[in-house]
Each structure stands twice: as C-alpha cells, then as structure tokens.
Amino acid sequence: DLFDAQPQSLLLTIFGAFLEPRTAPVWSGGLDAILGYFGFSTAAARIALARLVQRELAERHRKGRHVYYTLTKRSVHLLEDGDERISSLGERPGEAVTWTLVWHQLPDSRKAERSNFVRQLRFHGFGHLQDGMWASPRDYVVEVTDLVHTLGIGDAVAIFRAAPSGDVAAGPLIGHLWQLDEVAERYRRFAAKYAPLTRPREMSPREAFVTCTEMLQSFRAFADIDPELPEEWATHAGARREAIAVYREALDRLREPAAAHFRELTRT
C-alpha cells in the first residue's frame, strides 16, 4: 500500500500541510478526532502526541479545561527542510559532481539519536553503503552538518565531500544503494491511484481532508527512496515526472477544502 499510517509521522505531515502559522497552538481534541479518521483510537492519538513531546518536536500546554500542542523550533525547522525536499523533488538535474559521504558511530545507548539521524538521511535520499556509512549523489554537507548540530551528535559523526572517478562505472554502486526499479513502480502506482483526483468531483470536507492527507503522506515517502540522481542514471525519471504532475494538480484541488476542515476541527 502507498499509504503508511504511522500516527507520529501522520501528525507531522498534517502540521506541515495545514497548520498556519506553524507556531499556532492546536487543540488536542481536534487532533484526536483527526487521527480517528485514520483508524486510531483516542488512546493511540494521545500516545503519539506524548511521543512527539518526548522527541522535543512538540510542547503540551493547558488552558482551563483544554489541552493544546505547539510545535518546537526544532520541529518547525524539520518541516521547513521537508518542504524544500518535497518541492524540489525531481528538479535537480545535472551531473553528480560532488557526493556526500556520512559516517556515524552511534551505539544502542544512543538509539533515539541514531534513529532520528538515519531517518533524516533517508529523507534526503541517502543510500546505505555499509554499516554506519551513507552516501548521496548531492552536496548535502551543509544540511547534514546543520542536522548533526541540531541533534547534538557531532562527537559520533564524520562528513565528507567526494568526487567519483570517471574511469569507474557507477552502475554497480547505484544498484547497491537504491532499488530504482521499485522506485519507478511506486511512482507509477501513485500516478494511477491519484490521477482521478485531477478531475472535478464532489467531496465532503472530511473526504477532501482524508484524501489530501493520504496523498501527501504517500508522496512524502518518495523523499526516503528517491536519491535525485542525474538523468543518465535515473531510470525512474519518466515515472517520477508523471507522478509529480498528478500530485501537483490534485493538491491544487484539494488543499484549500482540506485546510479549512483542519481549521474547523482544531479550534475550540
């Protein structure tokens, strides 16, 4: 299935798409109702929110009988970084002149930091080279350095810029780092599933919100698997272009009614 409904990730996708401004407080009762649309109980919703607080991505506030959540500066920064990654997907042509290599040694005692770090590397299209070593065909040194400082893991990470040799074929390495046939197939399935949304149709506010959120969550997953390779290596480029066109047109139709429904649910 294209849609992976993990409650914490889903909440961040919803905040990124519909919360304006991103520093605004959000009523917990509305968030409980929203996650209920996707099959989560009130208890599961509250656990997800508590874990966002534990991860320092959200803060909990009480005002009278109501509980509200606000995003932390770190969370806002991650959402802005995600906006850039998603909006630029497929729009970075050119040769892979400079690669970024990242090495880390984060033991199990720092499992939370390791998980957060690896999650962000995957989100920026890094491929797993070997234990503790990740590679990207783009110059992400500044972004990764910023991430390392944000997470406070500079004592366990090394970052390198690298230039590939023109005398060595890149094909075997590309195949080791990324499964491009699977990426292309996923793009094709996305385009086929959401193409009907590019045509006018009647939807209730709830249906528009759920459909838009599912599409956003499904599309964001491409950031984890698409390394944005140069065209000569990107065998999935055609499928990606078709999926991006469908995504943008459908989003133009769905975003405003979906955002309006979010605002209605989360105000007290």
UniProtKB/TrEMBL annotation:
Organism in which the protein naturally occurs:
Thermocatellispora tengchongensis
Tell me one GO biological process term. DNA-templated transcription
Q: Where are the transmembrane segments?
A: none
Superkingdom of this entry's organism? Bacteria
Q: Where is the Transcriptional repressor PaaX-like central Cas2-like domain?
A: 98-165
Protein name as catalogued: Phenylacetic acid degradation operon negative regulatory protein
UniProt-listed Pfam families: PaaX, PaaX_C, PaaX_M
The Transcriptional repressor PaaX-like C-terminal domain covers: 178-263
Domain spans labelled Transcriptional repressor PaaX-like N-terminal: 7-74
